[in-house]
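Morning!

This is the sequence you dropped in the shared folder:
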Amino acid sequence: MSHFHDVQTIQVDKDKQVIQFTRKREISECDHGHIQISEEDSEVLCTDCNTKLNPVLWIAKYLDQLNQVTQRNNRMLAEVREIQAKLEKKNKF
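The structure's back. Tokens below.
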């Protein structure tokens, strides 16, 4: 999901009789953390900014985050097991 959005501005210079159109890409403030999924329309909608999201990209981002959390959880469990093993050795007489 893109963290950028297009900002379009129109400036009117009455003295020069010029209308200037500009478009620039800015970093989006919304990280699309709260979504609504419509299965019948196959759409993902961010409920924070009301932006329709690409469902495939949203799933890919979600799975990436889920994998990161799972890896972190596995590392923590390994540390806990290691600490428990050390404590058991220490407490044996």
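Headline: Residues 4-91 form one domain.

More detail when I'm at my desk.
O.
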